[in-house]
Amino acid sequence: MTAGKHPGGGRPGQPAAAAKKSSAASGWVVALVTVVLVGGCIGISVTNGDSGGTTVPAPAADERADTVPILAQAASSQGICYGWRLESRFTSDPVSVGSNLGDGVPVVDDPACPRWVEVTADVRYTSESSESSDYALIDVNGSPDIDRADLYAVETGLARFGLVEDVFVDDPGWAVCRAAVALPLLLAETGVVPPAAAPTAQPGATAAPLPDAGSDFWRDRWGWLLATGGLLLVTALLFTVGFVQRGRQRAAASAGRTPGKA
């Protein structure tokens, strides 16, 4: 008896094998796509884990540039160096450091500054997934010859300028520079240093004399005089119009008379 052929033209069992191969190929495709998607999500999560949310911003360039000369003038007047330091727990190096010696130059262990005072702000931002709140630690340090009680008085005095923890958290760069500028005044209040000399203006060229201001009569009464002149002008105009119209009426009356009537 002759064996019957499969309707598809192949041997019996061949369609089942093809189906198994197709199913296996589809499974590999699904697995590969799943691995790619999961790997991409993990990579994005690792790359954007911080997303800049925990990065403490440094003071702007103009803020640092404005702070250094103010500290330099106070240091020259009071004989002591002043500086600032901004730190973050996510970086090993300070976010920003500077002093009267310049931007990026600390006062600690500098031979040019045997006496120094520095304000330090350690700002710590937490991730959005954390239940902890952002906070800042503000400290004022100084050279060994300055009593710790005086430094603490300077530290607590920063609140008088509105430099509290929330301000350091909201804008740490501006706050630490503002705190550094306040150090000379607060330290002078403790008696450790004399008050800083007030800045004096440099002598310049002799100013040219001001032009003659004119009579006060015209300057103080110009509005009244202008209104009066306007009224006079309107009066003259009305008078002229009335005079012309009266002349025309007289001419018309003279022309209407009939000669020879009694």
Structure report:
A hairpin with a 2-residue loop joins strand 2 (96-99) and strand 3 (102-103). The model is unreliable at 1-13 and 29-52 (pLDDT under 50). The protein has 7 helices and 5 strands, in the order ααβββββααααα. The protein has helices spanning 14-47, 61-78, 148-157, 165-170, 172-189, 216-220, 222-255; strands at 81-88, 96-99, 102-103, 116-124, 135-142.
Main sheet: strands, sense, barrel:
5 strands, mixed
- What is the alpha-carbon Rg in Å? 45 Å
If helices are DSSP runs of H or I spanning 4 or more residues, what is the number of helices? 7
Number of strands: 5
Average of the residue pLDDT scores = 78
Give the SSE order as H and E letters: HHEEEEEHHHHH
Low-confidence stretches: 1-13, 29-52
What coarse outline follows from CA principal-axis ratios? elongated
What is the first-to-last residue Cα distance? Answer: 165 Å
Order the strands across the largest sheet as they lie in space: 3-2-1-4-5
How big a fraction of the residues is strand? 5-15%
Percent of residues in helices: 40-55%
